[in-house]
Amino acid sequence: MAAEALPEEIRSRVAALGRADTVVAFTASALGPDGATKLLSRTGEAVGHLSPGGTTVLVPGGADAAGESGGGSVHVLPFPAGVADQVPRLGLDAGQTYRTVFTVSQALGARACLVIGSDPAALSVHALRGLAQPVLEGSADLVTPVYRRGRYEGLLTVAVVAPLFRALYGCRLRFPIGGDFGLSGALVARCLRPAGAPRGDAVWLTSEAACAGMQLAQAQLGVGFPAQREPGDASAVLAAVLGPVFQDVANRAACWQRSRESRSVPTVGPVNPPPPDNPAPDAARLLDSFRIGYANLQDVWRAFLPPATLLELKRLTTLGPDAFRMGDELWARIVYDSALAYRLGSLSRDHVLGALTPLYLAWIASYTREARGASEPVLAGRMERLGAAYESQKPYFVSRWRWPDRFNP
């Protein structure tokens, strides 16, 4: 989107502002009567000293901020925002919001653009500064969030998104998909190219930066893992999250096949204690769903899972909750085979994701057994082993991707 394509009101306000060093876009919710004033003060405190003499433009998602000003260095630019903060965003397209924010940021020549999807009232000055500082100091082109996560929250990110991103793109990010991030002007410009145009999901942004060889960092935000606006069932969640992820994997195959070992990325901000845990999932019920899937989905599974995997799944159906454990290497291969099936299209993509659901529930049952009562260091080690397993199985994925008909162990 060129600046000329912005709505007239936004375009005229941008022209009046002229330049801005930092653009901060709050996309999640409309502001209350005093919301704009409070956000102006907090935003100025967070990033004002990082760019002396620069102008920070707050771009809230509500028209109630019109006319607000931060006293000379911080200004408000209202714009009609969609919902851009949900993980997953069931049925919601935030692409237009991202395009508008990035276009405004580029038109103002901003060095940093922050997109904030979390509740603005919950984000501290330190959290905003954590997203901005690495970008403004030139040490990062993209800063992704680190949320406070209970041991039974965000398990799809833990089980698939984070370890898959680590193995494919070589970056150890805890939340590659989120609603809060900071971008450099260079990354904003890259995202606005026709080939990199923002989509309604968030995965494209992180993989775009990684494939471009840009510098990544992550910031402790001190806020909880974003909740879904609509609960949905497990199949709907997998479709909303993994559909875009698997499509992105297919789009960027030329990139991730070249990457080798993963590396850690700098993390800014103090480590925050996890929130109180929700009740643990019912492992027995999850395993019942897995066994029902095994009984009813044999034909579908045989279409994209190799015989060795099917044999191991048969063995797992005989185990009770106290003995059940799905090996990390097995789970990584299942995810890789599902991503391949999604790309090949020999099965309906809905069928692939639907058939993956009982397998994911089985992984949750296995994880729940290990996570119950474990300390935070033990859980961190557990996640490290899972990420390493995805890396160890990447040659398997590359081989199957290149020769899907010849490589079928």
Written description of the protein model:
This protein is α/β, with parallel strands linked by helices. The protein has two domains: 3-268, Spore Coat Polysaccharide Biosynthesis Protein SpsA, Chain A, CATH 3.90.550; 283-402, no CATH class. It has 16 helices and ten strands. It has helices at residues 8-17, 35-47, 95-107, 125-136, 155-169, 185-191, 203-211, 234-251, 253-256, 283-296, 298-304, 307-316, 328-344, 349-371, 376-392, 394-402; strands spanning 22-26, 56-59, 74-76, 112-116, 142-148, 171-172, 180-184, 216-224, 263-264, 267-268. An eight-stranded mixed sheet has the order 3-2-1-4-7-5-8-10, sandwiched between helices. Helix 2 (35-47) links the parallel strand 1 (22-26) and strand 2 (56-59). The radius of gyration is 22 Å and the shape is globular. It starts with 7 loop residues before the first helix and ends in a 7-residue tail after the last helix.
- Shape, please? globular
- The mean pLDDT is 86
Largest sheet: 8 strands, mixed
Query: First CA to last CA: what distance?
Result: 47 Å
Helix content: 40-55%
Question: Radius of gyration from the CA trace?
Answer: 22 Å
The largest beta-sheet arranges its strands as 3-2-1-4-7-5-8-10
CATH class of the largest domain: Alpha Beta
